[in-house]
Fold this protein.
Amino acid sequence: VPDISLTNQRAHLQQFQNIASANGGNRRSTSAGYTASVNYVYDRLVAAGYTVARQNCTSGCTSGAGPNVIADWPGGDPNSVYMFGAHLDGVSAGPGINDNASGSATLLEIALTLAASNPTMGSHVRFAFWTDEEQGLNGSEFYANTLPSAERAKIRAYFNFDMIASTNGGYFINRISSAAGQTLKAYYDGIGVPTEENTEGAGRSDDASFNTIGVQTSGVAAGASRVKTAAQVTKWGGTQTGFDPCYHRACDTYPSNISSTVLDRAGDAAAYALWTLATGTPATAV
Ligand code: PHE
Ligand code: CA
Ligand code: ZN
Ligand code: ZN
Ligand code: ZN
């Protein structure tokens, strides 16, 4: 499993910050900052060899919301698909760096690393950058609800990345007891970092759209506005304050509102899951 470059994750974060700064300070789904964010990931994925689509959200999204970006890495068993997703939009209050340039930057860097290393693919891998999450998980809901049932059945798991570099962060895994969750947990176990169920984020990000259609999900999160407990400070360090003091605020900026350690581990955990599940031996046909 390759190491996901923290330097490159941070370079993408700087680009998202620059995009917000040049476009009125935010990357809300209906904004010029969102369009620029779409173009940034789209262009890099195409250049790396992905099959990339801008999927317009034609129902359920906020009026004027930009598209989802869906990127398929060619190859692997088309009947065995692993999806990895993050919302690309932010709230209007600020540039949306931990929420959720952190997930978007990491997803992009994992995709670019997969393309560069070009391993034998057992399963097919698809990356999704969602629009209009902040107004109600709308981009992912549109994707899930319009996906033909035959395509749904091919998805073995969906992994979500939302707020993965909180400055006073914790190590949370969505649906940690699922097979998908145990794969992510195995990475953190291997580096001696304890993990917990993501109770704060349950039902509040795009994995919920896949749970609704019966796809197994997991994901990584580092915490939002909830306050870190004394027990969590003991095992993870930090302070008994909010996991992200800038949650949905103007101060959700780069570089001040990013923990490099938490970000680095999340990227490497996601890569561990992707390489473990989707590369190498061809998957058993479903
Ligand atoms: N979906 C939430 C958001 O984007 C993310 C979140 C994660 C909220 C964890 C609460 C807890 O704002
Ligand atoms: Ca790394
Ligand atoms: Zn979010
Ligand atoms: Zn948010
Ligand atoms: Zn590392």
Remarks:
- Residues 70 and 76 are 17 Å apart (CA to CA).
- The first helix runs from residue 6 to 22.
